[in-house]
User: Fold this.
Amino acid sequence: MQRQISKFEQKMVEDLKKIIETKRECRVVRIKRLSKATMTDVFKVETDKDTVVARIFKKKDFPDCKKLIWIDAALQAHKIDSARVLFCTQESKPFRYGFMLLEYVDGRDGWSAMKSGDVSLRDYFVRLGKLLRQIHAIKVGKTGAIKISSFDNDFQWFEKLLTSFQSKVNFPNEVLLEMQRFVIQTLSCFSPRFKSVLCHCDLGPYNTIYTKEGGIIPIDWDLAEAGSLFRDFAPITMAVKEMDDFGERESVIREIQEFFLEGYGKTGFTIAEIQRILDAHHLISLIYNALACGNTLKDKKHLANVKKEIGKIMNNYSI
Assistant:
């Protein structure tokens, strides 16, 4: 039984058909929804010329078209395969917050490719490490389209974040102070050795397309910032349920770190330093995850798991 399309969605599809036929000088043959997320509606659009992906924005000034166009040009200049940006605008017509068109890349997301046996866990993360080495060769400065990551600079933002976290989770003050000390001391200590590079900031396997030719194509650059390599390494090593398909989760995380570093090559940091920096980034991500939890039973269970993961990290570093 097909899902009934609302009048709003029908109007969106009709407007999308018209604008693509105008901009691309083609005839639209078929439009299929790929996803409906908080920030974008995503469609696969088949035309008599080619197939493209359309992303209709749902939030004002997000994503930043100037940034996405800059990244697309930088990836091309460094000969890194990606879904090329064909058009991007934040004008209010025909869609309130704008839209973009991208090349369609045939394949499946990284986790699906690994689970189906198209690529092994080892080969995927070794290749991902090599890919990120290429991406991190793209240097960025303090001015331009890419924002400098707050994770590697001033820490007032983190103190405010902990205040919000305390009001939601009600952790003991001494634990919060330990969390604050650990994150600030860790990132402050290592920040002089960080190089400012282009970071995707969410390049887990779900944000890659594994192609039939065995390539890995990064997608969804909305959160990209300038930061250290750990802004990309940390999300890859965050615990997720998909890891359970490959063995005991902690063991899988260790394997992923090993495989990634094999592909990435020298980082300039020892294994112990890498682990400490990753734990600091993971702690920050867990706090954000906790703040995003609502009051549903599912959210409450997730919050309990988040608190448990925070406890594991702090047990390794608390005085």
Remarks:
- The first strand starts at residue 28 and ends at 36.
- Residues 88 and 100 are 4 Å apart (CA to CA).
- DSSP finds ten helices and ten strands in the chain.
- The longest helix spans residues 271-292.
